[in-house]
Write a structure and sequence with these properties.
The structure is a single chain. By secondary structure, the chain is of the alpha+beta class. The chain has two domains: 1-44; 56-187, OB fold (Dihydrolipoamide Acetyltransferase, E2P), CATH 2.40.50. The chain is built from five helices and nine strands; from the N terminus they run αββββββαββαβαα. It has a five-stranded mixed β-sheet. It has a two-stranded antiparallel sheet with strand order 4-9. The chain has a two-stranded antiparallel ribbon with strand order 5-6. Helix 3 packs parallel to helix 4. The longest helix has 42 residues, at 2-43.
Length: 193
């Protein structure tokens, strides 16, 4: 009888330890999940999405700045620089760089802008294909309206057809003479904002 009584308390003690170990493992697992969720929520940087209520401004004819300071370079286009001038057909100068910025500002007027990142440029800007309310592709719209050229090069020629249409219709910079924005930047390195 003594042996039988001793056996039962040992079995209960072993069962209690096993149960405590299982509960301890479960509690540790729950804590790990909670910590992982907290790290994901509070330690991961996610840029705020564009959309209603997010302040988006154009810096020039091919760059946008979000309210958090992030800059987005529109993929596949090159617009005249802010201080760049172009010539009308009659030879008169006009502020085509400022006009390109004004056109982009008009296109994003609804502030419901969405961008899909494709890369980063050498200045740390996000290179992205962007759309705005009523404008499915800002790059295409800027080129088609004659306020930017197709960048070509590594980007391919996504807006080659749009550029041809702008040139044939003498829209924007195509209504006279202009210097390619890349050439203008080389000639005016300190004038770029």
């Amino acid at each position: 009888m003594i042996d039988g009584n001793n056996e039962k308390p040992q079995t209960d003690a072993q069962e209690s330890r096993a149960l405590a170990q299982q509960l301890g493992k479960l509690a540790a697992l729950v804590l790990l999940v909670i910590v992982a969720l907290l790290i994901e929520r509070y330690c991961s940087y996610k840029p705020p999405p564009f959309g209603p209520g997010v302040k988006i401004v154009s810096i020039d004819g091919d760059t946008l700045r979000a309210g958090d300071g992030s800059e987005y370079r529109i993929f596949g286009i090159d617009a005249p620089e802010l201080h760049q001038t172009c010539k009308e057909a009659n030879g008169k100068s006009w502020a085509c760089g400022r006009a390109a910025k004004a056109r982009l500002t008009t296109l994003i007027k609804g502030n419901n802008v969405n961008c899909t990142a494709r890369d980063k440029d050498r200045f740390g800007r996000i290179v992205a294909v962007c759309s705005a309310e009523g404008v499915p592709d800002l790059g295409d719209a800027m080129v088609r309206q004659g306020y930017a050229i197709d960048l070509g090069g590594e980007a391919g020629n996504p807006y080659h057809q749009a550029e041809g249409e702008a040139q044939a219709g003498k829209h924007g910079i195509w209504r006279g003479a202009f210097e390619r924005p890349s050439d203008w930047r080389l000639a005016h390195p300190r004038a770029i904002e």
